[in-house]
Write a structure and sequence with these properties.
There is one protein chain. The protein is of the alpha/beta class. The chain is built from six helices and eleven strands. It is globular.
């Protein structure tokens, strides 16, 4: 009996490998949900779709709502099985004022049962209520979305360039990526990193010193104020240990259309869906040969 029992882990590993092999060659099925306040989602959805599909064999289906308010909702979320048929979901909505608990719980249920996700920029500031500007407690009524994301962010400062430094070079997502400095961008604050999250990159932004009050002249010796916070991380979410990747970068079209940004998001999608090896290599059948790669779309 002991010998037979010892075969169980081997069989499980072999079965998982067989399942992965069966998936080889099938395009990655991505659902991109986007819309809401404060961003040019009509353009950015196309930059993301074309950029991802140019990098790996994939199909990005866009669920876009042109509503530009913070109350934008999405019909696809009205079904309990809204995630059916997708390998990974890319959350790019900006719906900060959507507080319908049942609606949000339906979104989170898909990820709790194992559908991986990537959250970008304002997706981190969506579906929040209560005193969300204070650190939420795990399991609290207003903690659900933050627990899925893995980091709690509540706002941002002015737009200035952000120096992106990858702090975990051993992770499959980051292995081939190089540090870079963005154009003027929003640096999201971080008031809490959950224990389930692993930070992959930090962003440092320097802003001019505060303007003196009362008409006082600016101190010529005053130095810029530098702030460093996480800008990319992974999260182990829920009972199924669902893979979640998030980045707070991506406000402006020029950033979303940047090759370096698209590389980061695409590798996040691949890792979350189990299509990156420990060595950072893309799963067989998903890589696009260099000669076949389409040109990355440029931001307008």
């Amino acid at each position: 009996m002991k010998a037979r029992a010892s075969l169980v882990p081997v069989l499980i590993v072999a079965f998982a490998a067989m399942c992965r092999a069966a998936d080889d060659g099938k395009p990655l099925q991505v659902l991109l949900v986007a819309g809401g306040c404060c961003h040019d989602y009509a353009t950015q959805t196309q930059l993301l779709k074309k950029g991802i599909e140019a990098r790996v064999r994939s199909h990005v289906e866009v669920a876009y709502n042109p509503d530009t308010s913070t109350k934008a909702t999405f019909p696809i979320y009205e079904k309990d099985d809204w995630d059916s048929g997708y390998d990974v979901v890319l959350h790019d909505e900006c719906s900060a004022a959507v507080t319908d608990r049942v609606y949000v719980a339906r979104i989170l249920a898909a990820h709790r049962r194992g559908t991986p996700a990537v959250n970008i920029h304002c997706g981190l500031h969506s579906y929040r209520w209560g005193d969300f500007k204070q650190p939420v407690a795990s399991g609290a009524d207003n903690a659900g979305w933050y627990e899925m994301v893995g980091v709690q962010s509540t706002g941002h400062g002015p737009q200035f360039p952000i120096t992106v430094a990858f702090t975990d070079r051993s992770h499959p997502i980051t292995k081939p990526l190089a540090d870079w400095t963005t154009i003027k961008e929003e640096l999201y604050n971080t008031i809490q990193v959950f224990p389930t999250a692993t930070v992959l990159a930090q962003g440092t932004q320097e802003v001019p010193p505060p303007t003196p009050k009362g008409g006082q002249p600016a101190d010529p010796a005053a130095k810029p104020v530098a702030t460093t916070v996480p800008v990319a991380w992974t999260n182990d979410y829920g009972p199924k240990h669902t893979r979640i990747f998030s980045t707070s970068l991506g406000h402006n079209n020029e950033t979303v259309g940047d090759d370096r940004y698209l590389d980061l998001v695409t590798r996040g999608l691949l890792w979350a869906s189990g299509r990156l090896g420990a060595d950072g290599e893309i799963a067989a059948g998903l890589s696009i040969p260099a000669g076949e790669k389409a040109a990355t779309p440029s931001a307008p």
